[in-house]
Design goal:
mainly alpha; 10 helices; single chain; 9% strand; 327 residues; 42% helix; two-stranded antiparallel sheet; flat
């Protein structure tokens, strides 16, 4: 099925890689891909076969701001039937009613749409690698046209530069991830698995560690013992690095500390929450962060809290609603 050369040098063009079939009518397409990963070009073929429907794609829910208008949003807030939440005895019922009505306004102005998630590349695969790979493939095409030894040398130099760049990016990425997650077991093991630890017991891994002599070993038992020794002594090693305690934290020392801070016993009490304090908290919200469990984005809270609609038609002047929610 393959008719084009799969290995090209300055003096030869050879067809070394093949796709052989006794039912060519079941092959819809075939050919050679100009990818400069190796001296041999990548070949491909596509079979005509029945493919069952997949179970579904990964979907993500996003708000559509195409027709969003702040004036319409404020008008809908003004016309929303928010109740007097100071009359509620159950704060959960008051909160549920408030969230339900606020979400109905938000959904009307910025409805939720589902979008299909595309496959993402590795985290270490960045724009620098993409640019270098594009340059390599372009040099490969130039070499295939000219077949000059000079162009071949330039292409191979670019190819090895991409390989070295990928190894460098992967090394820096995993080194950083291991340092960041040294105290987070779940994230640490996830990073280790991405390095080559098998997901199944029967699979063979390619994890390598340095033993006590500084030698790199791939033996599974030795690497397991190294991990075991590291985690078994982790707490002790961290404690040994702590500075010695200057004072003993007895009950009298603690009382004396708080006494010097003018903190008296049973002096703690709840104070009434003011409307201005709530507005300050709303203004400080990061509008770029994703919505929480209530599905209300900070975008609708920050910058909209001073609008007439968001003050519930000025019903909150008594501050009982704010006190109700603060509980």
């Amino acid at each position: 099925m393959i008719c084009s050369p799969t290995r090209i040098t300055s003096s030869t063009s050879t067809l070394l890689d093949h796709v052989i079939t006794n039912t060519p009518h079941k092959i819809s397409q075939s050919g050679v891909l100009d990818i400069g990963l190796s001296d041999h070009q990548m070949i491909f073929c596509t079979r005509k076969t029945h493919k069952e429907k997949s179970k579904g794609h990964n979907q993500v829910k996003l708000r559509n701001f195409k027709n969003y208008d702040i004036q319409v949003f404020e008008n809908r807030l003004m016309n929303a039937d928010f109740l007097d939440y100071s009359e509620f005895n159950d704060v959960n019922l008051a909160y549920s009613d408030f969230i339900k009505k606020l979400l109905s306004v938000i959904n009307a102005c910025a409805p939720i749409r589902e979008r299909r998630l595309k496959t993402h590349s590795q985290d270490w695969y960045d724009g620098e690698i993409i640019d270098a790979s594009f340059k390599r493939d372009k040099l490969l095409k130039n070499f295939k046209k000219s077949k000059h030894s000079v162009d071949e040398k330039i292409y191979k130099t670019a190819k090895y530069e991409v390989i070295n760049l990928i190894n460098l990016k992967k090394r820096e990425y995993f080194k950083t991830k291991l340092q960041e997650n040294i105290g987070k077991l779940k994230e640490l093991w996830r990073t280790i698995k991405s390095l080559g630890l098998p997901g199944k017991v029967s699979a063979a891994g390619n994890i390598s560690l340095r033993n006590e002599k500084g030698e790199i070993t791939f033996d599974s038992k030795i690497t397991a013992n190294i991990f075991k020794s590291f985690f078994a002594n982790l707490a002790m090693n961290l404690v040994s690095k702590l500075p010695p305690a200057t004072n003993r934290f007895s009950k009298d020392v603690v009382h004396l500390f708080y006494k010097n801070q003018n903190v008296k016993e049973n002096s703690f009490h709840f104070s009434e929450v003011t409307e201005d304090s709530i507005f300050k908290q709303l203004i400080s919200i990061n509008s770029n962060k994703a919505a929480g469990m209530d599905s209300i984005s900070g975008f609708f809270l920050k910058g909209r809290c001073k609008s007439p609609g968001f003050t519930f038609k000025s019903d909150m002047q008594s501050l009982h609603q704010a006190k109700c929610f603060s509980q």
